[in-house]
Each structure stands twice: as C-alpha cells, then as structure tokens.
Amino acid sequence: MKKIVVMGMGYIGLPTAAVLANRGFEVLGVDIDKKKIEAIKSGTFEMNEPGLGEALSSAIKSGRLKVSARPEEADAFLICVPTPAVAKGAGKVSDLSYVDNAAMAIAPFLKEGNLVVLESTVPPRTCRKFLIPILEGGGLKAGKDFHLAHCPERVLPGRILHEVVENDRVIGGLTPKCAKAAADLYGSFCEGTIFITDDITAELVKLVENSYRDVNIAFANELSLICREMHLDAREVIELANRHPRVNILNPGPGVGGHCIAVDPWFIVESDERNSKLIKTAREVNDSMPSNVVDEVEVALAASGYHPGNVACLGVAYKNDVEDTRESPALEIMFRLQKRGHNVRAHDPIVKECPFDLMELEAAVKGADLILLLVDHTVFKGLDLEYLTGLMRTPQVIDTRGIWRKQMEKKERYVNNAYVFQGGKS
Ligand code: SAJ
Description:
This protein has helices at residues 13-22, 34-42, 52-61, 97-106, 126-135, 160-166, 176-187, 199-230, 234-241, 264-271, 277-304, 329-339, 361-365, 378-381, 385-390, 405-408, and strands at residues 3-7, 26-30, 65-68, 76-79, 85-88, 91-94, 115-118, 147-150, 169-173, 194-198, 310-314, 343-347, 370-373, 396-399, 412-415, 418-422. By secondary structure, the protein is α/β, with parallel strands linked by helices. Helix 11 (277-304) crosses helix 12 (329-339).
C-alpha cells in the first residue's frame, strides 16, 4: 500500500496524515476549508498541539504530504471528519452530514482492492446502514470489491502525536479480510496492540469509552453538588475515598466540554434510549454544572454588594492546556453571566480566538469583583492570588477546578461547591 487519502484535516486527520507521510506513505490530505488548505501548504497553519508543527513541516518538506480540496485515486481512504451532535427534543442526536459529504467525494474514485476506514465516531450500525450505501454508489460492493473497516480514533488532545502512534487500536472489519487490510495499514505506524473485531462492535466500543468517562465525571460532579448542600469540601471527600484500593473518583469541575465526551454518549442514547438511563442522566448532570457555577458567582457577587459585577474569567478552553473551545463549559458560563448583566472579562493565554475579547491577565483582574477560574491550564497553577486579589475591587476568587487549594487553605470560605477566596489585605 502506497498512497493514502485522508478526508478531513482536523484534530485527527491532520496529525494522522503527517504521521503517515513521515512513515513513508504518499498522503493526500483533503479538506473542504480552502483557507486551511492554503495555510497548510504555505506552512502557516497553526494548531496548539505539541509536536504537530514539526511533524507537519517535515511531512510537507519531504513532498510526501500534499493537501487539496478534492480526493483522487489512492490505495486507502481514511475518513476523519467531525460527527457533531445536534439538539433534538430534550437530548441530542448525531449529525452525519460530514461523513455523507466525505463518502460522496470518495465514491467516484474507489477502485477494486481499495481500503476505506472510518475513524470518525458514529452510532452503531452507521458503517452498514449509512456509509456503505453511499460508497457503493459507484457500483463496487463493500466487503467484496473493496475493504471497509471502522477504526475509531482514541487520541487525547494535547497528546495526539504520541497517542496516535502509541495507543492500542480497535479495528472493526465488515469482514475478516477487511479487518486484516486495515490492521496491515495501522500496524505500519501503530506501536500499540491492534485488536480485531467487527465494525458494529468497534462503533460501540468507542462510544462506551467516552460514556464511561462521562458517567465517572458526572459521579464526581454529583458528589460536588451533594457536598455543597452539606457544606463539605467535595475534593477532600473524594481524596479520602480514593485512598480505598478499589476507588478512583475523577475531579469535579464546571462541566464537561469538547467534541467527544459531551457528544458521544448521546449516540448510545440515540441508538437505545430505553436502556441507556444512566448514560443519559450522566449527560444531564454534567450539562447542569455551568448553571450551578453561575449560581455560585451570583451568591458571591450579591454578598460583595457589586451586583452586577466585574467577573474576570480565567480560562476559556474546554479543558487544560488546549486552545480548543468547542462545547466549552467556560464559554457557556461566561455567556450566562453576561446575560445576567455582569461585565465578563476573558483571559486565556492559550486560546487564540473566542466570542469574547481576550484580555491580558492583569487588565482582566484589575478592578474586578471576582476571579472565576474555569480551566486548569498549567500556567494558572503558579499565579499569586495574594497579588492578584490586591488589584481587585472585591478580592474574591472562585476556583472551579481546585488548582489553588493550597493557596486558599487559610482564606477560604465556602459558597456552594467552589472555593471562595477572600484575599486582599486582610
Ligand atoms: N473533565 C472533568 N473532570 C475530570 C476529567 C475531565 O471535569 O476528572 C472534563 C474536562 O475538563 C473536559 C472534559 O471533561 O471539559 C473532557 O476532557 P477529557 O480529558 O476527559 O477528554 P477529551 O474530550 O479531551 O478526550 C476524550 C478521550 N477519551 C477518554 O479518555 C475515554 C480521548 O482518549 C478520546 O480520543 C477523545 O475523547 C475523543 O476524540 O473521542
């Protein structure tokens, strides 16, 4: 196998294309965003993912990675396009329009013996019910004339370049021969173990992984709400419970964001709502967290006498040390605060663009009535709260991630489930 077309130059497709090119494959990266294509070609495309810049520039320089708005004939096609969830009733369902477009674009170029791999996360049976009918539009039969497999991506943003190579992979083939063809390709660049199964099992495995994490985060978040009612420190309760050899509770926070964990559980609910009560409830618990944080802010500001007040929001990304703001609970909280009349000041040294004007740290904090820590970026951990609160009109801090517990130890009082720090000159 020599030539590979990667459909979608996003968080998964772009690093995968760079890794494949650097391993000696001839790769064509395809994206509908022409501006992005031009930026990748000219070497000006930037994504805050460690190691990606170097991998990309060496792939482009070698001439083995090319990019284009249209696919062409190849030996293998990897589909790495987004599969967002869209609102339906009280929940959400998958939007497969990008998979549809990618498959339509590939179909005319499919030849006998080709391999098509779907990496995008999808509801069970999508390969069979949705993808195959489109790909077979050109007259070739899946599993007979061309190979089809689902190989869900599992990389963690912030560690993508490592994990794309090191992680174990689950490969679900439409037939054992399809699985073998895909395993041969992934075996050429994956250092983890490759596990072979059928396509429907692979589709569900991916959803189960992210739902497992969502349910576990929801448990931590639910505990934080219970502790708030009891005026207890949720993080201390969790830390102590985690001393048990078979207990490992995750961290409560302002909600669950990103394009995976906040989305994928809905695909299970969409497939079997009757039996996915726990998964659905976990989504609801995690989705309720932003409004809980807003309530905490309201209580603190009301107590300070400045209501509406100036709120310095630290962190806009969906999680620590990434620039991605998709489904970010921080943004949801900021919009809600703005709607209630508060003056929201946004600071995030990693995020490049967001719907709020990004300010320097001191400008955001000066004259503020509350610092609201929303993301546990590493750079925030060492900030000096004594100094920052000295710049404020009302020296209060709510730390929704628990990164400043040590600094707050002596000064905290609890307002609901967050640490409220009354700093300044006291
Ligand atoms: N979060 C908490 N508390 C925690 C852990 C996370 O509130 O204890 C929050 C984060 O702040 C963030 C959200 O959850 O808002 C999700 O972050 P994450 O680090 O758990 O996961 P993602 O979305 O960045 O990546 C996940 C990973 N899946 C699993 O760990 C099972 C990754 O391996 C997948 O490849 C990725 O989803 C994906 O693309 O599906």
